Amino acid sequence: MTIDGPTLRTTSLRLRTVVAIVVLLAVLLAGLAVAVEVLLGVRLRAQVEDRLRDRAAAAAALVGTVDVEDLADRLSAQGLSVRIVQPDGAAVEAGPTPDQLRAGPPDPGALPVPVPRGSESAGTGSSSSGSGRTTSTVVSSAVHEDDGVLTLVSRLDDGTRITLTAGTRDVQDTLVQLGWVMGGASTAFLGVAVLGVVLVVRRSLRPLDVVTSTARSIAGGDRGRRLRPSQPDTEIGRVAVAMDEMLDAVEGAEGDAVAAEARVRAFLSDAAHELRTPVAGVRAAADTLVRGGGDDATREALAVLVVRQADRAARLVDDMLTMARLDRGIELDRHVVDLGAVLVAEADRLRSRLPDVDLTVVVPARPVPADLDTERLAQVLGNLVDNAARATGGAGRVVVTLERGDRGSLVRVEDDGPGIATDDRERVFDRLVRLEAARDARSGGAGLGLPIARGIAEAHGGALRHGTDGTLGGAVFELTLPASC
Known about the structure:
Elements lengths: L12 H50 L5 H9 L4 E5 L5 E4 L3 H6 L34 E9 L2 E8 L4 E7 L1 H36 L1 H14 L15 H57 L4 H33 L6 E4 H15 L4 E5 L6 E4 L1 H18 L5 E8 L3 E8 L33 H11 L3 E4 L9 E7 L3
Parallel strand pairs: 7-9
Antiparallel strand pairs: 1-2, 1-5, 3-4, 4-5, 6-8, 9-10, 10-12, 11-12
């Protein structure tokens, strides 16, 4: 029989683990590279900006104390593009142009030749040192970045405007080189990580190979093999413990199934044996009657034999059907009744059927409520009394006592017969088991009365067992029933 259920994903656990770890490492390395590049780029640009501000502050301090052309030459000698606009509108430029800075780091040999001190530049007027002038300070400054250059515009308090431009191409080149270095290092690191992860995962998942080999060995017939993990609190240890528990349960169920099959076969064999006697008697008597042999008295005796044997076979079949119903779960018609009254009424019925048996019933004066099926309880009591009557030869003494307890009721059935040996007190509850002393054709018992009685008791939530300390010297059976809610 196939049971539908969720499909288990069976893709390679090693492959999924390795791929997941490598992808995670690649993402982390990529994030680290981006973070380093961004932070380093911001830091390098901040250094360039600080350099421009320092140069602008130094130039502001020198304006008015040195010649403007000389100041521009000094600033441009540091690789900066310099433009100084004086208050009268005259402009002085020095160093590489912004376009040259965008193209790449300036070549010192290609820088413009500084204008000699005291000369005039084209389109601008010269300015003397102005030894009597005071230094200026920066009133405002603004920085903006263009493609490959960083420009700082500072306004002084005397109206002079100084524009300093520095190239950032070297910063970009540095970041590009850093990217290549980190990319190569990350690739090498991932290669080593893949090898390491493969080895670690293979070693970590090796217990699964042991589980697989153990399962196949068990499937091949080695039912007693188990995993027995050394560390049952780990993930694989818990799986191994669960598998061992499952195998124990399966092995136990298999053993129970084999034992149940053996019991069924024995039961069928014993039932066939029990039915053979009455069927053979009926067949022989019927054959004689059909042939018309014998006188009227003989034919009447044969007819009585047919009826008795048929009745015996019918009782055996009824008992077997009752056992089958008990095995699959019998339905009870339960009601809350006075257990004492039920026992007294059933005892009166049994006295009429067993007139030679001295049957006594002792019940408490107060009602004993119990939730039960009265017909099934009557069947239990009838089986117990019939069993006691057979044990005493049909003319002994039987005492039924009812006791009320906190957790339920106790019904004791005692007789003054020979009793049951200690070794046989549990075996009498097996199916189709009759003790040697009771194996005679007159008893009519098939060994199903006590198993049926125990099954009905357990269906009520109670129990039936052989007790001890009997006052009559014979067998003592104790029936316990739960208290009514």
